[in-house]
Design a protein that fits this description.
- This protein is an alpha/beta fold.
- The chain has two domains: 2-204 and 393-406, Rossmann fold (3-Layer(aba) Sandwich), CATH 3.40.50.2000; 207-391, 3-Layer(aba) Sandwich (Rossmann fold).
- Helix content is 42%, strand content 17%.
- The chain contains 16 helices and 14 strands.
- The chain has helices spanning 20-30, 81-99, 114-127, 141-146, 154-169, 180-187, 207-216, 222-225, 245-254, 270-279, 296-301, 323-331, 345-349, 360-371, 375-391, 394-406, and strands at 2-6, 34-40, 58-63, 66-71, 106-111, 130-135, 172-175, 198-200, 230-235, 259-264, 285-289, 305-308, 335-337, 352-354.
- It is globular and about 65 Å long.
- The model has no long low-confidence stretch (mean pLDDT 95).
C-alpha cells in the first residue's frame, strides 16, 4: 500500500527529535508498504535552520531509507507571527505539491498544526483517498490552556471549526492521548464524531534502538557511575512550561547529599537555574547540559529514579504521552511524576508513582519513598517499567496503525 505521512514538523529526526513519524514509516516500509513523509523544510526550535537553502520549491530526499518530500518554507524563530506565517505557508503550498506526486492509497495527516492537517484531509476527500487524522495535540484547546486565549477569541473559534471538520471528515482519527474521546464529548460532537472511528495509539519507544544505544553510547560521568549516591534524573528541555526550577525547591527540601539531582537538558531558563544553584548554595543539584539523544538510554538506565515534571494543565485530564516517559520505561528504572492526569500509565503499570497536589513538598515525599523503599518492592517497580516498555514498542504500535490503515 502507498502511504503518505503529512506532518509539518516531521523533518528527519537528526534535525528535530520528532521520531514518531519516521519510526512508523520505517516499520511500515519493513512490512512492505511504500511510505513517504511530507514536511516543511524548516526545522522547529533550531534558530531558523532550513533544509533547503536554495530557491527550489520542493526537494525529494531519502533519509535513513525513508523518502521525504520537503516543501520550502520561510524560516522562523520562536512562537511569534513568523511561525504563524510559516504554518499558513506550508498549508497553502501543500496541495500544489501533492498534485505533482503519484496518488497514494492512504494519507495520515497530523495535527499539530491543524491547518495542514485539514489540508491533507481535504485533499484525501477530494480524490477518494482513505484518510487518517492523527491528533498529537488538542488544538486550539492548547491555546486556551497555555496561551491564555479566551474561547471567544476569533482565532480560537476559527481553529475550533477547523478541528471539528478534521474529526468529521477523516475516515479514522488516531489520538495520542487515551482520553481524547472524553474531549469530543465535552465539545458536544459525539453525534457527528462516532466513537467507532476513533483509535488510540500513544507515543512509544524503539526498543531495539534504545538497547543498542544503551550498550554503545556511554558518557564519562562520575556521578552516573557512582554507587554511593541515589541519582534522581531529569531529562528534557529547561523552559517555562516544564518549570524545572521547582526541582531546585525539592532538592532544598530533601537536603540530603546522598540524594543527587542530575539535570540533563538545555533551554532558555538554564542560566536562571545555574544562578539559583550558586546564589542559594544548592549542593545536591548538578546541571549536566544538553546531550545527543543517543546517550539518553545510558543516562536514564544509570538512574535510581527518573522524574517527569511539568506545570499543571487542564489538558492532562485526557492523558499524557511525553516521549521521555517511554525512555524511562525502557530504562527499567521507576519514575516519579508530579503530573496528575487521567489514564495514568504509571498507575496502570505500577512502574512509578504520581504525587498529588504538584507541590515541592509532595514531590520530595515521592522521591524519599523510593529512596527508603525495600529492595524487593523497588525491583518490582523496575520489572513493571520494562513490561510497560514492551507494550509501547514501536513494532507493537505500528501493528496497531497498520490495522487502522487497512480497516474498512
Amino acid at each position: 500500500m502507498k502511504i503518505w505521512f503529512i506532518n509539518h514538523y516531521a523533518v528527519p529526526p537528526q534535525y528535530y527529535p520528532l521520531a514518531r513519524p519516521s519510526l512508523f514509516a520505517k516499520s511500515l516500509i519493513k512490512m512492505g508498504h511504500d511510505v513517504t513523509i511530507i514536511a516543511a523544510s524548516t526545522v522547529h526550535n533550531s534558530a531558523s535552520k532550513n533544509l533547503i537553502e536554495t530557491k527550489e520549491r520542493v526537494r525529494e530526499e531519502n533519509f535513513d531509507g525513508i523518502p521525504y518530500v520537503l516543501i520550502n518554507c520561510t524560516p522562523y524563530q520562536g512562537n511569534g507571527l513568523k511561525r504563524v506565517a510559516n504554518i499558513l505557508e506550508f498549508a497553502y503550498k501543500l496541495p500544489k505539491v501533492l498534485n505533482r506526486l503519484p496518488k497514494p492509497d492512504a494519507i495520515i495527516a497530523t495535527s499539530f498544526d491543524p491547518i495542514s492537517c485539514y489540508a491533507g484531509v481535504k485533499y484525501a476527500k477530494r480524490f477518494g483517498i482513505k484518510c487518517i487524522a492523527e491528533i498529537a495535540d488538542l488544538w486550539p484547546e492548547t491555546l486556551v490552556a497555555y496561551g491564555g486565549l479566551s474561547r471567544k477569541n476569533p482565532i480560537v473559534k476559527y481553529l475550533k471549526n477547523v478541528e471539528k471538520r478534521i474529526y468529521t471528515q477523516a475516515d479514522r482519527i488516531v489520538f495520542t492521548m487515551q482520553g481524547a474521546y472524553d474531549y469530543i464529548i465535552e465539545q458536544g460532537w459525539e453525534e457527528v464524531v462516532q466513537r467507532s472511528k476513533v483509535r488510540f495509539i500513544n507515543n512509544g519507544i524503539d526498543l531495539e534502538q534504545f538497547d543498542y544505544n544503551r550498550e554503545h553510547f556511554h558518557i564519562e560521568d562520575e556521578d552516573l557511575k557512582s554507587t554511593d549516591i541515589f541519582k534522581v534524573i531529569y531529562t528534557g528541555s529547561i523552559r517555562k512550561v516544564n518549570n524545572v526550577g521547582k526541582l531546585l525547591d525539592v532538592a532544598k527540601l530533601i537536603n540530603n547529599q546522598r540524594i543527587r539531582f542530575l539535570i540533563w537538558g538545555d533551554g532558555d531558563e538554564l542560566s536562571q537555574l545555574e544562578e539559583r544553584i550558586v546564589e542559594e548554595n544548592i549542593t545536591n543539584v548538578l546541571i549536566k547540559g544538553r546531550v545527543d539523544k543517543k546517550y539518553i538510554p545510558y543516562i536514564t538506565s544509570s538512574a535510581d529514579l527518573n522524574i517527569i515534571h511539568n506545570n499543571p494543565s487542564t489538558l492532562f485530564r485526557f492523558g499524557i504521552s511525553f516521549n521521555k516517559m517511554f525512555d524511562y520505561f525502557a530504562s527499567g528504572i521507576p519514575t516519579v511524576s508530579n503530573i496528575e492526569c487521567g489514564y495514568d500509565l504509571l498507575e496502570k503499570y505500577h512502574c512509578g508513582i504520581t504525587v498529588k497536589g504538584g507541590s515541592a513538598e509532595t514531590l520530595a515525599e515521592g522521591i524519599l519513598k523510593f529512596y527508603n523503599m525495600p529492595k524487593e518492592e523497588y525491583d518490582t517497580y523496575c520489572k513493571n517499567a520494562l513490561r510497560a516498555a514492551q507494550d509501547f514498542d514501536f513494532k507493537v504500535l505500528t501493528d496497531k496503525l497498520e490495522k487502522v490503515i487497512l480497516d474498512d
